[in-house]
Amino acid sequence: MTPPRIVILTGAGISRESGLHTFRDPDGIWARHRIEDVATPEAFARNPALVQGFYNARRAQLRDPSLHPNAAHEALAELDARWPGDLLLITQNVDNLHDRAGSRRLIHMHGEMAKARCLRCGVVSAAEGDLSPETPCPACGTTGGMRPHVVWFGEMPLEMERIGEALEACDLFVSIGTSGAVYPAAGFVQEVRHHADTLELNLEPSEGSHLFDETRHGPATQLVPAFVKDLLAKWA
Ligand code: APR
Predict the structure, then answer these.
(1) What's the Cα-to-Cα distance from 220 to each of 37, 139, 161, 227, 235, rounded to whole Å?
(2) CB of 95 closer than 8 Å to CB of 113
(3) Are strands 106-108 and 87-91 parallel, antiparallel or unpaired?
């Protein structure tokens, strides 16, 4: 038998136990900042320094030596390394914890905080430090156009064609640590539920919980390693 083709979607909940805040929990990022001030193209056009400051603070968290991938990121990286069939990890997270854990078959559909994109020439470059309106683009040298390489509200997520193909072909879809509040990711389960098994692993029922064949609720660092162990024991 061929192993099932797997698509895994992750959200901010998988990084919570590494110390990064989610968005919509009571202590989440959107309880402290207004989306329309910091996470839209209009906000950036109106006040680039404010938006850069918001992402500079979040980017600084990525440089904190105490930040590490947790057991859930590590389990998914092990699955990636050992899974004998098709697998795609799609993350909505703009942190780099999946990358640091070693996941390779990975798409950052909402972009990456540790990268910048130049609005003048379009080149995406590494951006580990702070960005400001004075930051020059390393490719074209102009200033004023460097923005965080993240997808803001009202913008199209990245690599949607590749994602659509993987969803269409998958046999198992797993959603981890996401509230199911933001489309298009929130709609993935509806796209696959008639041809794939669907599983939700989340701290609590998400908005779309009822759409999944199976749901398991608890912290990602417990649920994800157990899920990966079972899957590898069966197939790898
Ligand atoms: N383990 C598993 N799940 C957890 C944990 C944990 N330790 N802690 C929190 N969660 C769950 C919450 O219960 C919630 O359902 O993670 C989910 C996080 O939801 P959101 O804060 O809405 O984050 P996410 O779904 O990733 O948001 C989607 O919204 O603002 C945008 O672009 C941003 O990518 C983000 C998108």
Answers:
(1) 30, 39, 28, 10, 22
(2) yes
(3) parallel
Q: CB-side exposure of 136: number of CA atoms within 13 Å?
A: 5
Please give the average per-residue pLDDT across 11-15, as a whole number. 98
Cα 13 to its chain centre, rounded Å, is 10
Which tens digits make up the pLDDT trace of 69-89? 999 999 999 999 999 999 999
- Classify residue 153 by its DSSP letter: T
Q: Tell me if residue 110 is catalytic.
A: yes
Q: Which residue's entry shows tokens 């080149």?
A: 123
Q: Tokens 């797993």 identify what position?
A: 174
pLDDT at position 5: 98
Residue 177 carries which DSSP code? S
Cα 178 to chain centroid, rounded: 9
- What gap in Å lies between CA 121 and CA 32, rounded to an integer? 33
Pocket test for ligand 1, best of 8, 14, 15, 24 (most atoms within 8 A of CB): 24
Q: Binning pLDDT at 50, 70 and 90, where does residue 52 land? A: very high
Name residue 199's beta-bridge partners.
174, 214
Task: Give the SS3 label for residue 83.
Answer: coil
Give the number of the atom of ligand 1 that is nearest the alpha carbon of residue 93.
Answer: 34
Query: Is the pLDDT confidence value at 233 over 90?
Result: yes
Among the listed residues 110, 149, 195, 217, the single catalytic one is: 110
* Other residues' Cβ atoms within 10 Å of the Cβ of residue 222: 14
Strand partners, 150: 111
Ligand 1, residue 17: give the atom nearest the CA: 7
Instruction: Report pTM.
Output: 0.97
